[in-house]
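Sequence decides. Consider this:

===
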Amino acid sequence: MSSSRPRRPLPRRARVTLGLAATASVALTASACAPKASTTSAASTNSASASALDCSPSTLALYKKGQLTVATDSPAYSPWFDNNNPSDGKGFESAVAYAVAQQLGFSKDQVKWVVEPFDDSYAPGSKNFDFDINEVSITSQRAQAVDFSTGYYTANQGVLVLGKSKYAGATSLSQLKGAKIGVQVGTTSYQAVNDILKPTQQVSVFNSTDDEVSALQNGQVDAIVTDMPTVFYLASAELDGGKILGQFSYDGGSAPEQFGLLLAKGSGLTSCVNQAIAKLTSSGELKTITDQWLSASADVPELKQ
């Protein structure tokens, strides 16, 4: 999504691991260009030094005293979450949320989850959560209305086609120039396609991933572009005969696309969340979480011009 995206309603199912997804109708042998966790600064940071921060639960500016309130959309999808149950600690973003909570001094039972639709999360105004974790890409436009943490995941874009498509043998972005590309509304994938692929046909924008998948199956579009973990899920669980062509990075003209924890504008919690992510990065725990839930991206070749 990139997600930077709203997701579509899907029937719930047991978690499809990326390791299984990588074997589903995807024959890829080229070298990898894997997304990695990153510590690049987000649009919103605090000038206090990390070493001087007092981030004990009793001092934090919390939405509700004594608990850490974390938001995400519903349904919550694999591999980001497990079986639409963010509170089980399974899935990449659930694991990241609990790791941040632990760094802030909260036990698992002190973390309370609330539902926040993707598009509403970065709208101006007060929030009913301490932070939102929902594959939200850090952008300067969104950062005018909300705070972002430093990035916890660098998201590459993935290209998904049907195995029987005339584009199924494409090995470069230039070979997709004439393809009809589908993306989801409200995502950075739209800009990525126009800025990087520069297709000769107008990009088709859909309200939901369900609509994208239907359009691909029905021949209305030749390819879908979205974030790599979602591409894996679609190829393994939603499409018969889907094929992942590869991945490409998109920096939006400044820096690699990253997902950040989203907080209310001017939140007193932002600096402490940044400190927590810095500790998870330096200790290697963030990499361990990333490898556990998103490692299959490493087997996908990079698509170049």
Q: What stands out?
A: The chain has two domains: 33-155+259-297, 157-248.
